[in-house]
Specification:
about 260 residues; 7 helices; disordered N terminus
């Protein structure tokens, strides 16, 4: 990622940070100026799909236990024990491929934030989280309609049973708004906002480290700025993992709620 840093000598010197567009917008490599424009975010998205696919295919073909196979098996067990069983139950294993795919796609797309030459989390742009949120909405609505029928699903989503009938005039619109609008919107915005905030923080401390690398009194502050940059990099690695886990877990919770409306 190229960032132009310069001293504003005409104004007496100082630090000029790049505009926000310079750290989240990238030139298109292919199909420039069209709806199919292919840029850095597109490349990261392709890699985020290709890497776990290659990992799982390689692990499945390896008959002798290896480090890669242990990683893949550990990931599957993690999703089973920490996502599927708590949120859905044993009958949620049929959703294992979807939830594992969501976890790896989000996590790998996020971890490119700390990979040199990329240094950009895919989910710091709203398009990908929005598509994932819509995907989860489509899945849990389909599961609910299939498990309960259209009428049953709409009824179970209208609010808790046992309320006085006039109360449903107030509760039902709120419940429908919460289920069909707020859920996918909050999924997308939570992922987008966390990754964009972390990306801006890393850029900010990276800019400070570059600027403080000079032979004057400000150089004394460089170790503290660099220390923060290292600490935030480690923190963002953890956040990348947690965002993948949380997205998969909430998707499982919504699927479980559609599948078991009374639990």
């Amino acid at each position: 990622m190229s960032i132009s840093i310069f001293a504003a000598e005409a104004e007496g010197g100082g630090l000029v940070f790049p505009p926000i567009g310079n750290i989240v917008e990238w030139p298109e490599y292919l199909f420039e100026g069209t709806f199919a424009g292919f840029n850095k975010i597109s490349l990261i998205a392709v890699l985020s799909m290709a890497i776990p696919t290659i990992m799982f295919l390689a692990a499945s073909r390896n008959k002798i236990p290896s480090g890669l196979q242990n990683i893949v098996e550990g990931s599957v067990e993690f999703i089973d024990n920490q996502v599927i069983l708590p949120a859905i139950g044993p009958d949620g294993f049929k959703f294992r491929p979807l939830l594992i795919s969501i976890f790896f796609f989000v996590f790998i797309g996020n971890i490119f934030e700390v990979i040199p030459t990329f240094q950009m989390p895919m989910n710091a742009r709203m398009a990908t989280p929005a598509i994932l949120g819509i995907l989860v909405l489509f899945v849990f609505v389909t599961v609910g309609v299939k498990a309960q029928g259209l009428g049953g699903y709409l009824k179970s989503s209208a609010g808790p049973s046992g309320l006085p009938k006039p109360m449903y005039l107030l509760v039902t619109p709120i419940e429908y708004l919460s289920t069909f609008i707020v859920r996918p919107f909050s999924l997308a915005v939570r992922l987008f906002a966390n990754m964009l905030a972390g990306h801006i923080l890393l850029v900010t401390f990276g800019v400070l480290c570059i600027t403080l690398w000079q032979t004057n009194a400000l150089a004394l502050v460089l170790p503290f700025s660099f220390g923060m940059l290292v600490a935030l990099t480690g923190f963002e690695i953890m956040v990348s993992f947690l965002q993948g886990f949380v997205f998969a877990l909430l998707a499982a919770v919504y699927i479980g709620g559609a599948l078991h409306p009374h639990h």
